[in-house]
Structures are given as structure tokens and as C-alpha cells.
Write a structure and sequence with these properties.
alpha/beta, five-stranded mixed sheet, 12 helices, 15 strands
Length: 345
């Protein structure tokens, strides 16, 4: 065999090897999605008591933003939002459970950070809720901005990242402040309600929950600024690429539906829409399920059974819920928020 023939043989062998490797990688990547289908339900790791996000009633009924997202995943994969099992996990066990594949997706574990995205064997496909450190203050103090807090006393958990954020934020603006600290949140809350400090600080979602519990909750005001970033969202095990894509695009579909004006009440009517993007979203002009290994009607099932992102937000943490949070950062990009759907094409 001449040099040209030998080169051709090597090229063919390399190509065959690459195809084999690619096929093996694809098989491995699809493993989680295939296992979920075979099992017949999605397993979601959640908090047992995270009001607005995940909590279980005395009757065993789960509710919250994280819970509804899990329902959206089940609707996408099985066409049934109830094809999901919730596993309550202690904070210290969450990423271990993901690594051991005891859960398919982890919600409410911790904010998306560099360390968690690199050292814990997890990947964060999307942001479900943009949270951050904020402040709550009695309305009768006539304070409407964090920038008006120079000289204020601030109730904060001792040794927490919240205390460090205050030092950075107030120090960089040369604003005076005094910390009132405690190692227990309940003690800190009691100090605040008794007037022992001007404001209480913590994640805005937590402050909203505490406001909902107070007898004079309507007299408490959440200041509009955030002084830290806490992006919360689902986490999946690294290497599970096909499942990662399903989780990511389910979140994108929730946002895209709201952008297109498609909701759980009008999704059937919208099938008659002449708008190309609407028809494409509902897979009337293209099969958006095929690249993800999902049924062709997955977006329709998600929106019909669960609703778009705005619907979910309003009934779990928004103005229609006990937390009564404004959309703020979690509004659509066209309305001043950060929620932005990548093109579904």
C-alpha cells in the first residue's frame, strides 16, 4: 500500500473512532433523560420549608416557585405536571444527593456562584429567581432608599456574608452605620420588631416572608435597592448534557411564552395565531421537541398545565401570594427586568 493509501486508511480509522466516541458520549449524555423516562417521574430535591419557593402542607401537598418549575419539567417530559416526586433535603446533603443521582434536579440549594459551578460537580442551567440582599424598614420612618440610611442601626446576622456586604456597600459610599447583631435570626427579627434597630437586612425573599408573618406587615416597607446578587435556579449533575438542555429550555420556554403573550388561559386559542413566532413556539411550524428528545407538543403542555413564568411568579411569590413581591429584577427585559428568553429556533 502506498503512502496515499496508508494516509487514507488512517483518516478512515480516525473518523470511525471519533464517530464511536461521539456516539458513546451522546449515549452517556442521554442517560439521565432516559432513566427519568424509564422511571416515569422526575425527582426534585427541594427545601421542605421555604415559603414561596417550596413547602409542604399537612396533607402532603407541595407548593411554591421551585415546585411549579419541577411541575413544568414533568409536563415537558411526560405531558403530566404531576409526574414528579419531591425529596426534602437538609442543606448539607443537597449537592451530595445530586452527585449520588438521588435527585434529577436540585432546587433551592444555594445561589449560583463560581465555586458551586466548578467544585461541587453541578451545573446551573438557568436563573429561576433573581434574589439579593435588601432592607426592610417601618413605613413611618419615611425612608425610601438605602442611600438614606447613613447613620442607621442595622440588624444583621453576626459573621454572615450580609454583614460583609454592608461593610462594602456603606464603606464605599462613606455612609455611617451601626450593626446590631445576633447569631439567631428569630432573635434578630424580635429586636427589629421592638425597635432595637432602624432596619433589618437579609435576602429580599426572606424579608418578604417575615413581613407576611408580622401583624403589622402592611406597615413594613422593602427598600428598592439590592446590595448583593443571589441568582437562584435549578442545578443538575455535571456531564448530563441532554438533561441540562431540557432543564434550561424549559425555563426559557416559560419566559418566551410570557414574552409572546401565551398563557394557560389562551394557549389553545393561540394555536390559531398568524404570528410566526407564536406558531413556532407551539411547534406548529417546526418540531422544537426533537432536538431535546421531548414530545413535539412539550411547550404546549408546559404552558397549558403550569402557565408562563409571569403566572407562576404571581401566584407563588408575587402580588397574588402572601409574600407580595414586585416583579422587579424578575420582570421581563422589556419591562425593566432581567428575564430574557433566548430565541427558540
Amino acid at each position: 500500500m502506498g503512502l496515499k493509501g496508508r494516509c487514507l486508511s488512517v483518516a478512515i480509522a480516525v473518523a470511525a473512532s471519533l464517530v464511536s466516541i461521539g456516539a458513546a458520549a451522546q449515549t452517556s449524555s442521554n442517560g439521565t433523560l432516559d432513566a427519568i423516562r424509564a422511571r416515569g417521574h422526575v425527582v426534585c430535591g427541594v427545601n421542605e420549608h421555604a415559603p414561596g419557593f417550596s413547602e409542604v402542607s399537612s396533607k402532603g401537598t407541595w407548593s411554591g416557585l421551585d415546585v411549579e418549575f419541577c411541575g413544568a419539567l414533568a409536563a415537558a417530559v411526560f405531558g403530566n405536571k404531576d409526574a414528579v416526586k419531591f425529596l426534602s433535603l437538609a442543606q448539607s446533603d443537597k449537592f451530595k444527593a445530586l452527585q449520588k443521582e438521588e435527585v434529577d434536579v436540585l432546587l433551592g440549594a444555594a445561589p449560583w456562584t463560581l465555586t458551586r459551578d466548578t467544585e461541587l460537580g453541578a451545573r446551573f442551567p438557568a436563573v429561576l429567581y433573581y434574589d439579593g440582599q435588601g432592607f426592610i424598614v417601618p413605613r413611618n420612618h419615611s425612608i425610601s432608599s438605602v442611600l438614606e440610611l447613613s447613620g442607621a442601626s442595622i440588624c444583621v446576622l453576626s459573621g454572615s456574608s450580609d454583614a460583609a456586604a454592608i461593610a462594602d456597600y456603606f464603606g464605599s459610599r462613606k455612609m455611617r452605620y451601626q450593626l446590631v447583631t445576633s447569631e439567631r435570626w428569630e432573635d434578630l427579627l424580635q429586636t427589629y420588631t421592638k425597635g432595637g434597630c432602624t432596619v433589618l437586612t437579609g435576602d429580599v425573599s426572606l424579608l418578604a416572608f417575615e413581613r407576611s408573618r408580622l401583624p403589622n406587615g402592611s406597615d413594613q416597607m422593602l427598600l428598592p435597592e439590592y446590595i448583593s446578587k443571589e441568582p437562584l435556579g435549578p442545578a443538575v449533575k455535571i456531564g448530563h448534557d441532554a438533561w441540562f438542555a431540557v432543564v434550561r429550555w424549559t425555563m426559557i420556554a416559560l419566559i418566551a411564552a410570557e414574552e409572546l403573550g401565551i398563557n394557560s388561559n389562551n394557549v389553545d386559542m393561540m394555536k390559531a395565531s398568524p404570528v410566526h413566532e407564536v406558531r413556532r413556539f407551539l411547534s406548529l411550524e417546526a418540531d422544537l421537541g426533537a432536538p431535546l428528545g421531548l414530545p413535539r407538543d412539550w411547550t404546549y403542555q408546559v404552558i397549558r398545565q403550569v402557565g408562563n413564568y409571569g403566572e407562576i411568579f404571581e401566584r407563588t411569590v408575587g402580588l397574588g401570594s402572601p409574600l407580595k413581591l414586585d416583579r422587579g429584577l424578575n420582570n421581563l427585559w422589556t419591562k425593566g427586568g432581567l428575564m430574557y428568553a433566548a430565541p427558540m429556533r
